[in-house]
Amino acid sequence: MTAKYAYYPGCSLHSTGSEYDISFRAVCEKLGMEIKEIDGWICCGTSPAHSSSRLLSLALPYENICLAEKMGMSDIVAPCAACFARLKTAIYEANEDAEIASQISEAIEKPLPKSMNILSPLEIFCNQQGLAEAVTKQLSELKVVCYYGCLLTRPSKVMQFDECEYPMAMDELLRSLGIETLDWSYKTECCGGALAMTRTDVVLKLTHDILEEAKAVGANAIAVGCPLCHVNLDTRQTEVEKEYDTQYGLPIFYFTQLMGLAMGVAGDKLGLQKHFVSADGLLSGV
Amino acid sequence: MEANLTITSQSQLAKAVFNESGQDVNLCYQCRKCAAGCPISYAVFCKPTQIIHAIRLGMDDLVYKSKAMWLCASCETCTTRCPQEVDIAKVMDAVKITAVKQGIKPTIPQVAAFYRAALSNIKMFGRMYEMGMIVGLKMRTFEFFKDVGMGMKMFKKGKLKMVPSFTGALRTRKIFNRVKSIEKRNRKT
Questions:
Q1: A16 → closest Cβ in B147, B159, B168
Q2: Would you call B9 an interface residue with chain A, using a CB distance cutoff of 8 Å?
């Protein structure tokens, strides 16, 4: 069987967010969904590119879109929310502005593909048949808040993903696997993203607000779909606790890790051991 | 009789922002939704709404001395909520790009250093090589001991690669160079 989706992991899923890559692949395998990594993919440029050059920030994603087309694919799945947003933005802007489209084409020395669908795994899994049948383990101890962050849904005119102010896709997906998700007000608040590298104080404040709200509504875990959100909420959590003299101990899961657990995949096959905040205590009660 | 009531600013910066981003700040009617939703409003004196207004008024100095664009997390909340469909996040990018072009010192130099470190890293390797980028950033900011402990722990957990990938490095460098020459040509015309 040939793969249905071209897979664009992006830089984070090969490094700081490698557990997102591992767990995404594991879930695809469980569901019999074939993916093929784009040969020779390059970085999408992320925030440093669009903060420095509009053309560069559109040309880099387009190089990857062209590579996917060369593989004969018409759908790209991009789990990283930032990559997902940059790929979609490139297509949106090229469609809106013929002048920039021709400059992009000149910069990458290729004609731009006529069409390419850019998908988040959330969109694919939500439409997947047989999800409930794949569940082999009840995760009844979990009370999860789904944290979508910024770039899955914004800007809404570009992303066209779910409802931008109060999305439900991740909640519905996890609920369909028997995982309880809670309502809360911080689904699409910003964690500070890449400011962690330079202005950590801002990120500590923003992640503190998110962790605080998650705890207030009674969550014992947070589900995310962005490697930047994960780094800020997981690896910086101890720092937040120290700064604000509080205690959270909230495990941060990629939603694909929770899917894998519900489908009976072992924790170490989903990269759970890579988390800074251990989920062992929480999961031993499951 | 119908009249076009949009007041058009003659400000040079408004024109520069328009050329850079296609965004017309004159559409703003100061509802302040952007400031209300901005996660960094608490940390800046001039909120996004005031930056937009200052651009219209030609108060370039005030804009360039502000921190908002450099602290902007690109969360796109302002862009999504603007009732006039001004892409405010893009305006923030355009102000930064214009400032750099004019040789104006960034108000948050670490953020500008991060952009440069990240881009030169991508240009060199094709994919972000985190270890190299972190070293590059430290060389630029002199914050040698920041996050060292966290970095070590990430490395031990296999979250940071020792060796960079060079996949697509040559192609990426070519794209960077061609973008530069296209932008140079655009400035001339």
A1: B159
A2: no
| Residue B73 to residue A202, Cβ atoms within 8 A | yes
Of the options 1.20.1050.140, 3.40.50.720, 3.10.20.600, 1.10.1710.10, the CATH number for the domain spanning A5-122:
1.20.1050.140
B148 CB within 8 Å of a chain A CB = no
Which of B143, B60, B142, B41 has the alpha carbon at shortest distance from B104?
B60
A252-254 and A180-181 strand pairing? unpaired
Single-letter code of the amino acid located at A144: V
Give Rg (Cα) of chain A: 19
Q: State the pLDDT confidence band at A3, using cuts at 50, 70 and 90.
A: confident
Architecture in CATH for domain B12-101: Orthogonal Bundle (1.10)
Q: Is the separation of the CB atoms in A37 and A3 below 8 Å? A: no
pLDDT tens-digit profile of B87-122? 999 999 999 999 999 999 999 999 999 999 999 999
Angle B169-188/B109-125 helices, nearest 10 degrees? 120
- Using the Cβ of B101 and the Cβ atoms of chain A, whether some distance falls under 8 Å is answered with no
The fold adopted by the segment(s) A130-284 is Rossmann fold (3.40.50)
Q: What is the DSSP string of A30-42?
A: HHT--EEEPTT--
Model confidence pLDDT, tens digit, residues A76-129? 999 999 999 999 999 999 999 999 999 999 999 999 999 999 999 999 999 888
Beta bridge partners, A146, equal A223
Domain segments of chain A: what residues? Answer: 5-122, 130-284
Closest CA to A84 of A52, A49, A115, A123: A123
**A282: three-class secondary structure by DSSP:** helix
Confidence (pTM): 0.95
Distance, in Å, from the CA atom of B119 to the CA atom of A28, rounded to the nearest integer, reads 32
Q: Which of A230, A101, A91, A56 is nearest to B122 (CA)?
A: A56
Whether A43 contacts chain B with CB within 8 A: yes
